[in-house]
Amino acid sequence: MTETAPDLLYSEAEEDLRAAVRSLLADRTDTPAALARAESDTPYDPRLWQALGAEMGLAGLLVPEKLGGQGAGHREAAVVLEEIGRSVAPVPYLTSSVIATETLLGLDTEVSEVAALVAELASGRRTAALAVPFSQGPDSLRPRGGLDGIVRTVADAATADVLLVPTGQGLYVVEAAEAALAPLTPLDLTRPLADVVLDGARGTLLADADHGRAAVRRGLLAGAGLLASEQLGVAEWCLTETVAYTRDRKQFNRPVGSFQALKHRMAQLWLEVVSARAAARNAADALATGSPDASLAVAVAQAYCSRVAVHAAEECVQLHGGLGMTWEHPAHLYLKRAKSAQNALGSAGEHRAAVAELVGLPGPA
User: Fold this and answer.
1) Is the backbone of residue 360 left (phi > 0), alpha (psi -120 to 50) or beta?
2) Using the 8-state DSSP alphabet, how is residue 108 labeled?
3) Strand bridging mode 170-175 / 204-208
4) How far apart are CA 14 and CA 200, in angstroms?
5) For residue range 15-46, what is the model confidence (pLDDT) as tens digits?
6) Are 259 and 247 in contact (CB under 8 A)?
7) Theoretical Cys-Cys bridge with 229: which of 78, 88, 134, 332, CB 3.0 to 4.6 Å?
């Protein structure tokens, strides 16, 4: 039996989607606005989310049409996340429209509470956050005993309408107003973190422990796989901006980009970005097709793309010289997004260990 090779090219529909998302984000997320919002107490732009999630219908890309969504897939969601990474847009797309939505889709959608919540997330009217630490990888979940205690460093909890809480009894949905939130100061000011205090919170049980655990793993796996596309978008912006700057910036009456040492650095970075694109696209395609190798594709993508995004952002800051070190230049936003994402949904080391296990290599001594 011949296996079909994954299709890593973008379709015409995907390119059209990219153009529409890029146009919207270019209009709504210029650098002064992004910096001003990063310094405020409301890092997310509700009007941008309304336009992106509800008006364009992107919040429901992963949701089947019968449940109120667009009936698209992970490849299309990956394109959206590439553009979000390219603009470091302050929206809860990864946490609500990917991780929380995929978790709910892993449950029995014939259950009225599940179907209603999926439809609300797909419409963009409400957002959800999975109440696990943002560093949590797909394969190391240890559900808490019940609806009590504190969940540390939950991404987007402070802006979510509902929380999905995995426990030893099963997966609960809890209205965010039922929990006490302690906002944290994250490295990436465009993606808020908070500790969630659940003592006394009331919730609705959506699934038992086994089904809930499987659904949460599905959500985290999709999140890790598509986070690679966001990291790709960060790396592509950094490479493009660095090449443009070194072409225009002159020293000794020559563009600094013409010096051989810098040519080599940018050529190496270009090779890394191209490879990252292949890895991210492979992960998105594997998730979209339900490939049995999806776990391996996601682990490879995360292990590689997280490093490339950080390297691209570091080169962007350094090769912009003194300009790259200023608050007014957006390079630091990309470095912070890349560095925080490197430790999200499982570290690169955890994903490398997963790759070794999945291909049957011995683990570390």
Assistant:
1) left
2) -
3) antiparallel
4) 45
5) 999 999 999 998 888 777 777 777 777 778 88
6) no
7) 78
